[in-house]
Amino acid sequence: MNLTVPAVPDAVVRHAQTTGPLESPWIWAGFALLVVVAAAVAFRYRRRTTVRRWAVAAMVSCAFLGTVTAANSYVGYVRTPKDLALLLDRAGGPLAAVGRLIGTGDRNPGTRRVPVDAFTPIVEQFDLPDPANAVPSGRTYVLLPPGYHDPANRNRRYPVTYLVHGYPSVPEDWLGPGDAPGTLRMSYLHRAISPMIVVSVDLTAGQSGRENDGLDLPGGPRLGSYLANTVVSTIDRQYRTLADRGHRALGGMSGGAFAALNTGLQHLDRFSVLLLTLPYDALTNEKLLAGNRDLIVANTPRDYVRTMPFPYPVSTILTAGTGAPGDIATAHRIADALRARGQPVTVHLERGYNHTWHTARASLPYLLAFADRAFR
To answer: What was the pLDDT predicted at 110?
Structure first.
């Protein structure tokens, strides 16, 4: 069954596509120019040892900074000085002190964010360990709709959209490079969606550098179970949710999109909507499942979708950038497999984007609008 891509107001789209000041190509181009200047100085004063050494050191430093900023311009990970401050703060040690100097000393930035206006979501954060599933800790970020705490809304309940980060990444990234707070604000401002709760889930199991695809790994951690059961139950218990599958969406980007697809299909009793950007439909590393063929097949949607039962329908949107042919092919392959099983699905392409946070950020308004339409 084919669905249409939901309409999104132009102002919301433009906001999601706008690059931040630290993503500007002028930054790395400036460092590249300084490399040339430093090289010219080193050559001009090649017989003066001290000057030459300083010039070479400046050249190497600028080359390094140019490479880093060029990569950031392409990927879209650090958009603003505030994003940079939070990134340095997470790194700890001397870098954390630099981060505080740049703009923040808050080591848990989600716990005290105060809305700046009537359309800005309220961001809360808490740790959610789950010893039963061998998950030591998980920083859960909850974006509550404006007015959630107003006495007038004390009896109102809300649908929930869960978002999973990619790899290597952390849940804060849906708040930073993913700009979920900004996109939600613009979506509320322009009445593109109804109020919802958005949850950014931590599937790192305390090791952000370890790729795990959101799986129930042999010997633990059991991340799919943690997400579908522990996280969902906790959110339903602590917040005023519409606690049924018809009002829950699960999404993610890149590796997080695989985790959302695999977990969502394995827990159709929990989720009725899948929001997948930069998607995968196969494991990135079969060694994660210790070479167990039964587990590998059971966690490879590309293989099991065509025969799995669908006791409940699931609506799906897949998004990709036109600059990433592999993502486009995967998105259409997943869509075709779901359509063949009678499931409603649509594909949206972002022109000129690649497999980066730029694409995930630009896609988010469509993911949220799709979830909102499905909730209704």
So the answer is: 44
